Amino acid sequence: MKALQQLLHQVQWGGLDLLVIDMPPGTGDTQLTISQQVVLDGVVIVSTPQDIALVDARKGANMFAKVNVPILGMVQNMSIFVCPNCQHKVHVFGQNGVLKTSKEMGLDYLGDIPLDADICELSDFGTPVVVTKPDSYNTQCYKEIAKKIMNKIDLKY
């Protein structure tokens, strides 16, 4: 909590267009503190498609709704794995769980992020896939989701 408060209140951000904070799932102190201390344009709920993860996603969405934070939509993370050798597609964590949940909750479905080693490895090295491989399928997934979010909060891209 101390680190979060320092990040939010002691960093001179300058002319920020957008600040994205990646938080763990749930409805804990971190989410409540942010919703109480910062004016939020909205949140995006990200989940894998498996039922157990969607329980937390629903709780998080409901908590933000209770504190009047707009929910911009839901993203399905690790939606599909495509074998780099044979191109066989596998839904490792289930299929369309987030899509179904977003419809049930009346939330917009913003898109899918595939399960891909490039995303993990490049991010760990500090060079995100959108920078390192700007023409890749993974990058296109991120860009489509980003465009939808930016449109919802009236940011120009």
Structure write-up:
- The protein has 157 residues and is an alpha/beta fold.
- It has 7 helices and 5 strands.
- The protein has one domain: P-loop containing nucleotide triphosphate hydrolases (Rossmann fold, 3-Layer(aba) Sandwich).
CATH class placement? Alpha Beta
Strand order of the largest sheet: 1-2-5
Low-confidence stretches: none
Q: Assembly state here?
A: single chain
Q: Name the CATH superfamily classification.
A: P-loop containing nucleotide triphosphate hydrolases
- Overall number of strands: 5
Fold topology:
Layout: H1 2-9, H2 29-37, E1 43-47, H3 51-66, E2 71-77, E3 81-82, E4 89-90, H4 97-105, E5 109-113, H5 117-124, H6 129-132, H7 137-152
Parallel strand pairs: 1-2, 2-5
Antiparallel strand pairs: 3-4
